[in-house]
Amino acid sequence: MRFTKYSLTASSIAESVIAMVIISICILTATMVYMNIIDGDPPVKKYIIQRRITELLHETRMNNDIAPFYKEYGTYTIEKTVEDYQENLKLSKISFLVKTAHKKYTYELLMNHKIND
Amino acid sequence: MLKAASLAYAVFIFLLVGIFCYIIMQIFSFSLELNNYFDLRKKLIMHNESAASYAKANFENLKSYKQIRLFPNEKIETVFVKEKWGFFDKLTIISSLKKDSIRQDFLVANKRNKNTPALYLRDNDEDFKISGGTRINGDIFIPKKGLKTITIDNNSFEKPIHNGSVFNSQKVFPKHSELTIGYPENYELLDINEINEHSVINGFNEITKVIEVNTKLENLKLKGNIMVTSQDTLIISSSVILEDVILEAPKIIFQNGFEGSAQVFASKGVIVEPQVVLKYPSIITVGSNHIMEKSIIFEGESVFSGLVFMQGGGLSLEKQNTILIKEKAELTGEVYCDGTLSLYGIVNGSVFASALVHKTTTTAYKNLIYNGHILVDKVPGSFFQDSFFQPLDSEEILFVKKI
Question: Which spans are transmembrane here (chain A) (predicted)?
Fold first, then answer.
């Protein structure tokens, strides 16, 4: 008899059920962790917004542009406001308020008044 | 014999999945931390730019080592530190949040006033003369006797030109307080023989290094927070590279071919040999000394950008304090000479002189510029200025250089 050499003892039903439950929980937990990480706040969008803000800050500085604006960029909006920073100082405080579906960020910047030559 | 132990397998799989989840979470938290770190750095750099604008607007009233918050709804703290670095003010801006901070150092001076004249010549009761290929672009302050065009050496081919307004100067040359080095409180001596790699780069967040040299400095690169001193004549060879360094010696000679930027404080004289390039922002100053003759000489084809300053000792010493700018030498910035200036080269900027002279082998012509150029319109837009001439003092602060 070829198979008598390897005898296979089956687990009890209870043991099998517990094992199946443990494996299911494991797989479920792993899937949840994985999905949470993958589906977290999409970083690409964050970088697009940051890039836009950097551009705007740079433009504002280079051109000494103190005109306020409100712009919509598809999934987010940017509002630029300008106010004087403290009295006596020739400084403007420029704020960029970014609104996405869930979050709000503010970027602030101080800029010297342009001196007319 | 194989035993089908499902529970043991399940526990094993549980462990595997656990390890897998742990690794994923670690990678995620690491990338999050890295992102946060770069975000924070970016934010601090941006904040430092705002702090720099704040410092420009409020420079006189800035208090060193006082923590301030520029934006109340942000938690970033900013500290300003004002010190001297040679002629310039050195401003340090430190923005910090949590345990991270960004530090930037700047050389600061007053911004050049756009109305600065091309020439200010003290009124010494003689007329101001131009001759040969002399060209002056810009307003001039000259003696009451006025401007005269003359021909010498039978050179009638070239016509001297002046474009700009003419004003009367005062009989007293605008006095300037002496430019001093302003030694730092703490410094350490560095033996030149201990420098192994032919280079010393010392950041401004470190303690100032002072190097004492006998006579000649060669085969060395020095950058940053370094002072070089000598008790005798200091010769800077062309194999030396200097940046932002302060030099102090009785007499300093830049040898043919040298390139770099430095602040030079001498008591007897400075010689800038041909092919030397002293880059922006450089300072050459010869301080007050009532006993001996003092001179600053720019040889032909030397290039300089910054401030040249000859401290005087009143009218009686006018003749022994001299600046000579030879043909084909090109200076950009300001030349202040409380003494006698001979100008044959080009000054892209302004000249303030107590007296002018053109010497030939036989004659010395007073108040004459022969073949010299003063072109005030050639100064770059952002250039610093020494504030000594009250009506032209500028209130605007200029960040001359990030160091």
Answer: 12-35
CA contacts within 13 A on the Cβ side of A25 = 10
Write the pLDDT tens digit of every residue in B120-132: 888 888 888 888 8
For residue B58, the chain A residues in CB contact (below 8 A) are: 89
Instruction: Give the Cα separation of B89 and B66 in Å (integer).
Output: 18
Chain B CB contacts of A59 under 8 Å are: none
Domain of A52, in residue numbers: 43-112
Query: pLDDT per residue over B165-211, tens digit each?
Result: 888 888 888 777 777 777 777 888 887 777 777 888 888 888 888 98
How many domains would you assign to chain A? 1
A74 inside domain: yes
Between the alpha carbon of residue B38 and those of residues B41, B105, B160, B180, the distances in Å are 5, 21, 60, 42
DSSP string, A80-93: EEEEE-SSSS-EEE
Sign of the CA dihedral with B76 first, then B77, B78, and B81 last: negative
Domain membership flag for residue A5: no
What is the ipTM metric for this complex?
A: 0.70
In a domain, A91, yes or no: yes
Nearest-CA distance B39 → chain A (Å): 10
pTM (global) more than 0.80: no
Find out whether B267 and B181 touch, Cβ atoms under 8 Å. no
> For chain A, how are helix, strand and coil distributed in percent, rounded to 5?
45, 30, 30
Tell me how far apart the alpha carbons of residues B265 and B357 are, in angstroms, rounded to a whole number: 25
Contact yes or no for A9 and B7 at CB 8 A? no
Q: Is residue A67 assigned to a domain?
A: yes
| CATH of residue A89 | 2.20.25
